Amino acid sequence: MLKLELRKKMLDIRKSIPFLLRKKKEIKIFEGVIELVKTYSAKSILLYASYNDEVDTWRIFDYCINNSIKTAFPKVDKNKRELKIYWINKKEDLVPGYKGILEPKNNNSAKIEDIDLLLVPGVVFDERCFRIGYGGGFYDKLLRNKKSLAVGLAYEEQIVKSIPEEAHDIRVDLVITDKRTISCV
Length: 185
Prior knowledge:
This protein has four helices and twelve strands. By secondary structure, the protein is α/β, with parallel strands linked by helices. The chain has a single domain, classed as NagB/RpiA/CoA transferase-like (Rossmann fold, 3-Layer(aba) Sandwich). It has a seven-stranded mixed sheet with strand order 3-2-1-6-9-11-12. A three-stranded mixed sheet has the order 8-7-10, covered by helices on one side. A two-stranded antiparallel ribbon has the order 4-5. The chain is globular and about 40 Å long.
């Protein structure tokens, strides 16, 4: 199946997960992330502002703020077609940006090498930790320079055996779902 077809199919599947079931799944994913944060003694995390039916990241954000873990969020640099990252202290530091996704409004720039744990969205992940996003290639560019653990967050329904990969695709190190953690390290 081509990436475009797989992306469309998975977006439909993700959207079809009933709201209450999705919330239960998100609690399991949250618990997996917090266990990882504690295991790695993470002092800083790159989050993403959940969009559409993505795994909700706001519970993770609240946990980080309440436990003095620095949080950074990405912002699309439209000219360079890449993600820049900025430190955020509260939700009010985010405003609608690229495609209506919440992005930092400040210029408190962060460096990827200063972040202990990178949480990455995706439309579909495979068991080898490759991912398909929305097709912009933004996270592939960002992950190329990573020094820390990159972790995809997904509902179990978003996992497939294998997706077609291209030379520019960068895989994550782990994928946390509501059923398991897939490790590729």
